[in-house]
From TrEMBL:
Belongs to the RuvA family. The gene is ruvA. This is Holliday junction branch migration complex subunit RuvA. SUPFAM superfamilies: DNA helicase RuvA subunit, C-terminal domain, Nucleic acid-binding proteins, RuvA domain 2-like. One of its GO terms (cellular component) is cytoplasm. InterPro entries: DNA_helicase_Holl-junc_RuvA_I, Hlx-hairpin-Hlx_DNA-bd_motif, NA-bd_OB-fold, RuvA, RuvA_2-like, RuvA_C, RuvA_C_sf. It comes from the Bacteria. HAMAP family: DNA_HJ_migration_RuvA. GO terms for molecular function: ATP binding; four-way junction DNA binding; four-way junction helicase activity.
């Protein structure tokens, strides 16, 4: 089992990134909460990982903190919640915000996340209420340490739209979310963060 990786950040194109560990490039999927904490391309990074073995692929997921990975693993145990939905939850709100939704039975906030309907939101509240007591609190919403630039030939807006689609939003919704953000001078990660925050805070 691969539990942690430390190496050079080769690229980050949400929701995918690659880390070079002694000449071996590991491709990972990660929630946006992790992308906000990544250094610039070429920087050193340490990620906690979760390896999912499927019939058609081995998929490695990366997380900025052990508590973030623990929440991801808890979410996978909820009936009807897969890896894609778990990543969408971690991308749309911090672990602390998710815990608050569960404590307050705030299914309305959960339904705003892609792929989560009313029944799934209710199931999350019921099944996660006791499990979250075992989760260590985090410091809140992660903010980007540095702006990234020049990582893709695409524009930050198009990168942001692509990432939102990968998280489960419909193309029209993803475009609308990005258009609602003042994008000038922002990196794709910052645009995504603002777009997701706007949806959750409605």
């Amino acid at each position: 089992m691969i539990g942690r990786l430390s190496g050079e950040l080769v690229y980050k194109r949400p929701p995918f990134l690659m880390v070079d560990v002694h000449g071996v490039g590991y491709e990972l999927e990660a929630p946006m909460s992790t992308f906000y904490d990544l250094p610039l391309q070429g920087g050193q990074v340490t990620l906690f990982t979760h390896l999912a073995i499927r019939d058609d692929a081995h998929v490695l997921y990366g997380f900025a903190s052990d508590s973030e990975r623990a929440l991801f693993r808890m979410l996978l145990k909820v009936s009807g919640v897969g890896a894609k939905m778990a990543l969408a939850i971690l991308s749309g709100m911090s672990a602390d915000e998710f815990s608050l939704c569960i404590q307050r039975d705030d299914t309305a906030a959960l339904v705003r996340l892609p792929g989560i309907g009313k029944k799934t939101a209710e199931r999350l509240v019921i099944e996660m209420r006791d499990r979250l007591d075992k989760l260590e609190p985090t410091s809140g919403v992660s903010l980007p340490r540095e702006r990234s630039a020049g990582l893709s030939a695409e524009t930050p807006q198009s990168d942001a739209i692509g990432a939102l689609i990968a998280l489960g939003y419909k193309p029209n919704d993803a475009s609308r979310m990005v258009r609602s953000v003042e994008c000038e001078g922002l990196s794709s990660e910052e645009i995504i963060r603002l777009a997701l925050r706007a949806v959750v805070m409605k």
